[in-house]
Amino acid sequence: MAIQVIFSDIDGTLITTHHQLTERTIHAVHACAKQNIPFILVSARMPSGILPLQQRLGLAGPMICYSGALIVDSVQLDGEPLQATTLAPQAAKTVWQQVDAHFPSVSFSAYSFDRWLVPEPADPWVLQEQAIAATPMHRFDFLENPLRKWPPLHKILCMGAPEEIDALEQRLTDASLDAIFYKSKSTYLEITSKQVSKASAMQHIIDFYHVAREQTLAFGDNYNDVPMLRYAGVGVAMANAPMQVKGSADYITLSNDQDGIAAALERFSVLPAAY
């Protein structure tokens, strides 16, 4: 069955280790567009963290943000979201209280639509993330503001030393938190609603384009990509992915530093021989 929609993670998949798009990847995505095959970016990033890549690739259409918690139209970021799922307010407060009380050196921040809310803008972890994602921050005091004044939150990001992130993850597990959480890397713990997954966001896009699930192809490299790889008609893991992620895929392509996306699109004949 011919591939009709392509989904791709960004960090560790679409872009290189040095956070760059290669010319071969750009050329491959352009070739998909010429065949009217939507190429959907799927990321834990906020909308404005995805948009520059969307524009560089010449894409127009939906973007899946916060690992599926928010789907927006890249042409109308300020418009009504195509899909939005927020954390239960009490779950968000519980995470804040656990970090504040037991992990003072862990950085807590949260995302609401296209706003990144940070209690301390000078935090080294915040500055590091801003340098990577190139997104603006907005100061918000989670301690001083009562819960009723907190905006709806699509994602919480906790950053810290690996051993502290491990300990925080265990504490949230013990607390039976009404949310899902995963490490996007050893120093990052990301928290969203239990209703959120890249796979559920994929289904929304599949319905949007009126295609069959079997006509989709997805690329990923990390644990939060596993539901997407399993749900797609063809799931492709990058060579730089952990073994568990590779085991969830139908095919393993070259790494993100070796133009793995272009190589797989050629392998599955999504792209013409001379594109």
Supply database-style keywords.
single chain, 275 residues, alpha/beta, Rossmann fold, Hypothetical Protein, Haloacid Dehalogenase-like Hydrolase, Chain: A, domain 2, 2 domains, six-stranded mixed sheet, five-stranded parallel sheet, globular, HAD-SF_hydro_IIB
Please give the number of β-strands.
Answer: 14
Q: How confident is the prediction overall: mean pLDDT?
A: 94
Which spans have pLDDT < 50 for at least 5 consecutive residues? none
**What topology, given as strand order, has the largest sheet?**
8-7-6-9-11-10
Fold-level CATH name of the largest domain: Rossmann fold
Class derived from helix and strand content: alpha/beta
Total of domains: 2
Taken as a percent bin, the fraction of beta residues is 15-25%
Reading the helices and strands in chain order gives EHEHEEEHEEHEEHEEHEHEHEH
CATH architecture of the largest domain: 3-Layer(aba) Sandwich
How many helices does DSSP assign?
9
